[in-house]
Amino acid sequence: GSLGPRRNAFAGRGTRRRKVKGMEDDILPLVKNIVPPLTSKKHKGQDGRIGIIGGCQDYTGAPYFAAISALKVGADLSHVFCTKDAAVVIKSYSPELIVHPVLDSPNAVEEIEKWLPRLHGLVVGPGLGREDLLLKTVIEKSKARDIPIVIDADGLWLVTQQPSVIQGYQKGILTPNFMEFTRLYEALPMDSSDYQRSVMQLSVAMGNLTLVLKGEQDFITDGSKVYSCNLEGSGRRCGGQGDLLSGSMGVLAHWAHAASTAGMIRSMNPSVVAAFGACSLTRQCNSQAFQRHGRSTTTSDMIQEISSAFKKLFES
Ligand SMILES: NC(=O)C1=CN([C@@H]2O[C@H](COP(=O)(O)OP(=O)(O)OC[C@H]3O[C@@H](n4cnc5c(N)ncnc54)[C@H](O)[C@@H]3O)[C@@H](O)[C@H]2O)[C@@H](O)CC1
Ligand SMILES: Nc1ncnc2c1ncn2[C@@H]1O[C@H](COP(=O)(O)OP(=O)(O)OP(=O)(O)O)[C@@H](O)[C@H]1O
Ligand SMILES: [Mg+2]
């Protein structure tokens, strides 16, 4: 499926979002179940080594937000694979991140590939720019290693051009905002007038891939049922909230698949549990940060709330 003519698939049709009851009560207990216990027996890296692919001259904030969020949610190590000029900037934001200036090197694929055996989760796209061939190969190689992959932002651009790159991958999650969703939806021949139905149709067309349509309420589906997350956030929509979301989802996806393998969540698709957890957390961070900072709230303020939001949602 390539791109059709540029138009808004939802123009003039039933674009109002029906407010449906959130599913916090059903799914939050499952999210609590996947959080690994903190014990003195563990070694560094066991609770997650996450890779973020993104960061270029124009965008250094997005990969930083995603990578630091992964750490603050509880990953042990967070790697950023970005271009050379972005690397210096990202390193100087934070000594906590491991930053690889490889995306614009001639052997970028090999440089990333050698880290793949050590990664538990991959987040592709925040601040990436539009880099098709490299990305396609990295996604293929990560799938071959059975690594959970969250695709966001510019990573979704590639999926729009070539849905087959991720189609049917059970450990894949797409996190489009409204614009990104519209592009994806137009790339595949479908017709629906309602968000919940169209997100479900798109998931089925993508081989039951887990999809998160972000918005006033987040719609999460793997094609069998639509779950809505409408935990209260705020009216503040600063840039970067989606990066907090995708970074935390990278860790939660690793935890959820590990828990599922261990037989700890039987009743639900682990990708859906991870997606729901990350949406809830992002919205809770937004709400808490807004209580302190109001209209001045930025993504950095939200990141400062991760610790207490996580406790409130998943450890109480
Ligand atoms: N500080 C940073 O470095 C940031 C970088 N970002 C990066 O910027 C790049 C482009 O991301 P964009 O999200 O801007 O790309 P898009 O191309 O999806 O968005 C294009 C435009 O659509 C608008 N839009 C978004 N949601 C909408 C909605 N619900 N209804 C109507 N219009 C809507 C946006 O304001 C934007 O102007 C990505 O690589 C992304 O990761 C963003 O993550 C924001 C923060
Ligand atoms: N109208 C809204 N009300 C409440 N929460 C929202 C609303 N829109 C988005 N969100 C929340 O904000 C988070 C990020 O969604 P958003 O649509 O801002 O992503 P994005 O456009 O990709 O952001 P970014 O600027 O990081 O690229 C999601 O978890 C979503 O739940
Ligand atoms: Mg985004």
TrEMBL record:
The keyword Amino-acid biosynthesis does not apply. It catalyses: (6S)-NADPHX + ATP = ADP + phosphate + NADPH + H(+); (6S)-NADHX + ATP = ADP + phosphate + NADH + H(+). PROSITE patterns: YJEF_C_3. Keywords: ATP-binding, Lyase, NAD, NADP, Nucleotide-binding, Phosphoprotein. It is an enzyme of class 4 (lyase). One of its GO terms (biological process) is metabolite repair. GO terms for molecular function: ATP binding; ATP-dependent NAD(P)H-hydrate dehydratase activity. The lineage of its organism: Eukaryota, Metazoa, Chordata, Craniata, Vertebrata. CDD domains: YXKO-related. Its EC number is 4.2.1.93. Catalyzes the dehydration of the S-form of NAD(P)HX at the expense of ATP, which is converted to ADP. Together with NAD(P)HX epimerase, which catalyzes the epimerization of the S- and R-forms, the enzyme allows the repair of both epimers of NAD(P)HX, a damaged form of NAD(P)H that is a result of enzymatic or heat-dependent hydration. Gene3D superfamilies: 3.40.1190.20. This is ATP-dependent (S)-NAD(P)H-hydrate dehydratase. The keyword Lyase applies. InterPro entries: CARKD (IPR000631), Ribokinase-like (IPR029056). Residues 27-313 form the YjeF C-terminal domain. Belongs to the NnrD/CARKD family.
